[in-house]
């Protein structure tokens, strides 16, 4: 894959190792962020690095992160630069030698300084986060209480200093190894959602709503 350039490329996120897999196009970065469910946030806490997995959502050119106000990660993210990564694994790449085994993947790295979402925008952004995680769900929920809103920290970070890295295709072996009688290829990895399981604590019979079936499909 050839290198693409755009305004997202910077020295902070310029890919040096396997640079031929680098993609700096905003559209590609956004698509990977939207498909990924979990991101990993790297921060410095008490002079030590920590990396925390969490859910995220993209709203336009902003990345949303949320959690408890007691979260060390979110507290430090309010005052310092952080690094956020996401990864999607698309297949195991089985080569003719152990050295050339690999994976097909899509990943994104973002570096930036988050800011606290202002109070007047918080409910709208929390709704956007919910809609990103389960489209159509907001319309079926009771309104959030003031206590719930105050009890949720919400940060947003501009997606301006970012890069994607992508590998696709079959294994790349040494030329002399292609004549060996060894099977090589790709085993795709496909993530699927199972049938919805109704909460056993339901106190009345409620049909599974259409948006849940749509989400699953």
Question: Which helices and strands occur, and which strands form pairs?
Answer:
Blueprint: E1 22-23, H1 26-35, E2 38-45, E3 48-59, E4 62-67, H2 72-77, E5 82-94, E6 102-112, E7 115-116, H3 119-133, H4 146-150, E8 153-158, E9 162-167, E10 185-188, H5 210-216
Antiparallel strand pairs: 1-9, 2-3, 2-5, 3-4, 4-8, 5-6, 5-10, 6-9, 7-8
Structure write-up:
By secondary structure, the protein is α+β, with helices and mostly antiparallel strands. It is built from five helices and ten strands. Strands 1, 2, 3, 4, 5, 6, 7, 8, 9 and 10 form a ten-stranded antiparallel β-sheet that branches. A hairpin with a 2-residue loop joins strand 3 (48-59) and strand 4 (62-67). Mean pLDDT is 90; it is low at 1-5.
**Could you give the distance between the termini?**
30 Å
* Beta-strand percent range: 25-35%
Order of helices and strands: EHEEEHEEEHHEEEH
Structural class: alpha+beta
Instruction: Give the % helix.
Output: 10-25%
Biggest β-sheet, characterized? 10 strands, antiparallel
Shape category: globular
The low-confidence parts are 1-5
DSSP summary: helix tally: 5
Let me know the number of strands. Answer: 10
Mean pLDDT metric: 90
Q: Report Rg.
A: 21 Å
What distinguishing features does this structure have?
217 residues, alpha+beta, 10-stranded antiparallel beta sheet, 5 helices, 10 strands, globular, disordered N terminus
Short description:
The chain has about 220 residues and is an alpha+beta fold.
